[in-house]
Design a protein that fits this description.
It is a single chain. By secondary structure, the protein is mostly helical. The chain has one domain. Helices cover 27% and strands 0% of the residues. The protein has helices at residues 46-54, 59-65, 79-87. The longest helix has 9 residues, at 46-54.
Length: 91
């Protein structure tokens, strides 16, 4: 799965290998577009990442795009939460 986060951060070098320059149009509206992508891949920071997702206008699109991602917080859910929802047929 390809991440669609923007690596543009003041004072940081963009060297993140999973940036896709052909990202879908909805990613420009994502609440996480200016966040450090690592926030969404570090388990300890899941509450902070989920908070960013909370009011995101494209949460549903993100959830669909990352539904099978094994690591990222996406659409407000951790990978484990998405697996649980999928096992119950709710995703």
């Amino acid at each position: 799965m390809t991440a669609f986060f923007s690596a543009a951060k003041v004072g940081k070098t963009a060297h993140i290998p999973f940036i896709d320059i052909s990202a879908p149009a909805w990613h420009t509206q994502a609440a996480c577009r200016n966040e450090d992508p690592e926030l969404f891949y570090v388990r300890v920071l899941a509450p902070e990442a989920k908070e960013v997702c909370g009011g995101c206008p494209v949460r549903e699109q993100c959830l669909e795009a990352f539904r099978d991602d094994a690591w990222a917080v996406a659409g407000g859910y951790t990978a484990a939460e998405r697996r649980h929802l999928k096992s119950k047929g709710q995703l």
